[in-house]
Amino acid sequence: MASSARAAPHAPRHADPRVAEPPTSPSETTGFLVGKHLRLGDNFWRAVAVFGIFSILGVIGFVVRLGDGMGETAAWGYYVAMFSFIITAASAAPMVAIAPRMANSHWRRPISRAAELWSVVGLLSLLWFIPILWILPPLSDGRRSLWFFDMNHPNLVPSYTPHIWASAAILGLVVTGLALVWVSCLPDFASIARRAPEGSFQRRWSLWMARGWQGTSRQWHMVKRRMGILGAFYFMMLVFVHFLISVDFLMTLVPGWIDALYPVTHAANALQAAAATMVLTAWILRTFCGYERYIGLDQIWGLGKLMFALSLLWFWFWFSSFNVLWYGKMPFEQAVIELLITGPYLWVFMAVFMLVFVIPLWTLVWNPVRHSLWGPPLIAVGILVGTFLDRIRLYVAAYSVPGIGNPSVHKHVLDFDHLPKTVMPDIWDIFIMLGAIGLIALVYMAASRLFPIMNMWEQRELQLYDRGHAPYHRAHVRVMGKSE
Q1: CB distance 307 to 383 below 8 Å
Q2: DSSP element (H, E) containing 481
Q3: CA-CA distance, 112 to 98, in Å (whole number)?
Q4: Cβ atoms of 96 and 272 closer than 8 Å
Q5: Where are the domains of the chain?
């Protein structure tokens, strides 16, 4: 079996007190991880209680907001912003497992399943999206759109075309994500079914989900090939969802906002938030859930480098779009800049700029910060807060523009002298925002009880490939056996 040094140079694992030595045999690995999956600690139920309260507050806020009616779009700006935050920070997180797996990276193995489980939160985004279908006016109301809708021939393009395509895209993303998680868990379900107590729910559930898994060469070939195909489709569906949402449910609501790059910007921002989400997830699993034997410096360091690179990408996309509007100097383009950047949401934009670009750039560039167990999690919190504020800045501003769906208001020119003022959240908006955070956490925690949060078979595979550490110039590297 050929071997090669594939890991980044760092101190040997056994010499680093921050990284614990994992089990040395595949059977010990399976036993330990199955035991962790079957047991629930006190921290789990404490988190359920806290996030359950948040979720109840969110339901109360939503019910009260329904009293304002669906036609008052300005009242629903924060609700739509939370939907965008869900598909940005949660639904994009599986890419942290999909992309490094395609690149044959080994550092992502302990967190790959934790990243894939975030696709289950797509069920929440699908339910959260249903009221938005009634909030957004149809094309027949005369609002701006990129769809070729003709008021004189309404049958050529259905009036609810944006609603139909966006719903289909989100449903496709959710189904693809659930299929990816299930295929990835097939070998682990068989391991759990053999070790779970007789007659328990976990045993019955695992037997049913394993679908007769025997571990044959054909089944292993199927799992690995299907994971690659589903991962590629998940990425395509993710970009498609962000394209439709950013165009039909955001840009077209602001007259004069013409930016062919922004749909890709919306998706690229999701990748940065996804890396931050996984840094926090890995840190929580290591600190509070007892997975410090597997999740260590390699995972936090790798995700920190991703956050650093994606912070630069955030600035590139933003500055490219800003240049188009700023150099154009057309009155409606200046009005868009005033609405979204320099006007009523200036301080929100400044906070976003600092949290998602300036602070990550000038902190993660330093090895002592990036190569630590405390630096990347702190930066990740800032990135998620910045992404949260960015979605509020954009969607709340867009849904406060007067004349949405009103043919008497100019569809292509934003009145510079009568821009909407800052829409501050009321108590019900705050409840909705807390509810979004609580429901995201609860859905993910429920998913971790149905699917093992640590990929057992990939950990066993890693132990078969791992040939130990060896000196390489002035550092030590992990020597990995190659299967091909």
Answers
A1: yes
A2: strand 475-481
A3: 8
A4: no
A5: 3-481
